[in-house]
Prior knowledge:
Strand content: 25-35%
Bound molecules: 4'-deoxy-4'-aminopyridoxal-5'-phosphate
Number of strands: 17
Distance between the termini: 39 Å
Low-confidence stretches: none
Mean pLDDT: 95
Structural class: alpha+beta
Radius of gyration: 20 Å
Oligomer: single chain
Largest sheet: 9 strands, mixed
Amino acid sequence: MTDYSKYIWHNSEIIPWENAKVHVMSHVIHYGSGVFEGIKCYKTDKGPQIFRLEDHVDRLFKSAESYKMNVPVSKQSIIDGCLEIVRANNLTECYIRPIVFYGYDTLGVNPKDCPINVSIAAFFWGAYLGEDGVLNGVNVTVSPYQKFSSKAMPATAKASGQYMNSLLSVTDAKARGYDEALLLNVEGNVSEGSGQNIFYIKDGVVHTNSEKSSILLGITRESIIEICNDLDIQIEIHSFTLEDLLCADEVFFTGTASEVTPVISIEDNIISGGKPGELTLKLRSYYMDIVEGRNDKYNKWLSPIISDSVIENS
Ligand code: PMP
């Protein structure tokens, strides 16, 4: 069960967690008409800090734009709301979930006059793919469900209804004893995990795909690309096949919740000898240093949560 926090930010007000309810006839419940973000706040030496907050809020607005939803508040008020809700709940590390969704008015698929609501929850969430998965790697299966084409729905948008595709894939994978699903796109190329982007390493070169493969443009993906450039590790961005992954030296997933998770088998084909690869571990440790505030060069990606007492005294 999701960890309980004390408060939720709802339409610019901080309200008790248990009061944050919607009517069952809300448009979002019937059609998944919402867009959302998944953001992480880490415990650092400078107190809790949110990783790439502005980039996540930018993506939230892009997702809303894809669905012609007019977010009723400014980017800055969502940024401030994220900081405020972590502070109000006194959390030192947490996951932050802003969501913009259509409420209750008409049940027609066209949302017309449905009110647009914005909520932000912050709560503790442990390792998405399990402590053991992140540390020692995960076993992945190729999903029988295809990733939807970007011509059917904007894959680059993080929209609620789109996750029914992920739900089908991950529940099927779990039912068959795997940790995660890997989805192929309509062209038969690799797309992504049910909630992660995918990378592979061959002969010291890091490879990942782009929006042409119907992926969500992950912020962790983009961070790893920047880290590779920074470390002078060659990175190539192109479409690739399942065969490329099976022949790779190393494979890993990226995501806000999954961070950098090694993939140690695909469809029972062992990758990198069934243990996390060397370069994957190097990239993961560099990434963790950044998110946990141990790399000053990347302080630009961290937004500190200033405690109430500091605000009162300033
Ligand atoms: N793809 C999908 C389908 C996802 O749900 C996520 C998680 N948001 C990602 C990729 C990774 O994105 P990010 O690194 O921004 O969390």
